[in-house]
Amino acid sequence: MRFARLYYRLVKFEHTIFALPFAYVGAFLAVDGVPSAHDLLWITLAMVGARSLAMALNRLIDARIDAANPRTASREIPAGLLTRAAVLAFCCVSLAIYLVAVWELDPLVRWLSPIPVAAFVVYPYLKRFTWLCHLWLGAVDGLAPVGAWAAIKGDLPWQAWALGGGVAAWVAGFDLFYSLFDAEVDREQGLHSWTTRFGERGAFAGARTLHLTTIALLVAAGAGLDVGPLYWVGVAAVAALLIYEHSLVRPGDLQRLDAAFFTMNGVISVAFFVFVLADVL
C-alpha cells in the first residue's frame, strides 16, 4: 500500500480529472448519446494509461531539475522514495495498459497511438529550449477528446478538432498560471517558460487570450454539431468559471494561485462534462 500511495502521488492521479471528462465529452458528442460500455471502459483505461505514462516520464526526465527546486525536491525520485528503475518499470506498465486499451478500440487510433507517446517524451525537454512548452502541453492534452472521438467513430471531422483545440487552449492557459510557481527558480536554472520570457503580466495576458480561445472553439464545435440547449449552458458555465478563476489571482497577488490552478480547473472539466451528458441523454 505504501508503494501504491507513492505511485499515486508520482502521477498525481487525482489530476486525471482535468483530462478524462473531456475525453468523455468527445466520445459522447461523437455519437450524440451514450457510447457502449465496451468503448467507455477502454477509453477510460487508455486515458489512465496514457496520463500515467506522461506524468511518470515527466518525473523521470525532470528528476535532476526537480531536485534543485525547493518546491519539487520532495517528489518521489529526488527524495529517494522511488528509484529511477522503479519509475521506468511503472512507465512500461502504463504504456502496456495504454496499448492494450487502444487495440480494443477503432483501428484508426491504433495507427495514431504512437503520436501521444512521442509527444510525452518530447514535452519534458522543451522547457530546456523554449517558452512554447506550455502550448505543446496543451496540444498533448487536447488529443483527449480527439482520440476519444476517433476511438468511437473512426473518423476525425473538424468538430472533433475544434473540441481538441478548445481543450488545448484551456490547458495551455492554466499552465501559464502554473509557471508562476517557479519563475525565479526557472531563471536561476536557465529554464524557459512563458513567465521567464514575458514576465508575470505576460503570463496573465497569455492565459486570458488562450481561455478566450477556449470559449470560441467550444462555441464553434457546438455550432457544427446537433447539440441542445444544455450544451450551451455548459459553455456558459465554463466561461463563468474561467472568469472567476482569473479573478482569484492578479499580477502581484498570487496568494490564491493554488485554488485558481488546482480547484477551479477540476470544477471546469467536470461541470462541462455534466452538461454535455445531460444534453445527450
Describe the structure.
The protein is mainly alpha-helical and 281 residues long. It has helices at residues 2-10, 16-31, 37-61, 63-67, 84-103, 107-112, 114-126, 133-153, 158-179, 183-189, 194-223, 229-248, 257-280. The longest helix is centred in the C-terminal third of the chain and has 30 residues, at 194-223. The protein starts with a helix and ends with a helix. The mean pLDDT is 91.
Provide a brief overview of the structure.
The protein has 281 residues and is an all-alpha fold. Helices cover 78% and strands 0% of the residues.
Task: Identify the notable features of this structure and list them briefly.
single chain; 281 residues; mainly alpha
Instruction: Determine the oligomeric state from the structure.
Output: single chain
Amount of beta strand: under 5%
Q: Rough shape? A: globular
Give the helix level as a range of percent. Answer: over 70%
Per DSSP E runs of 2 or more residues, the count of β-strands stands at 0
Contiguous helical run count = 13
Mean pLDDT comes to: 91
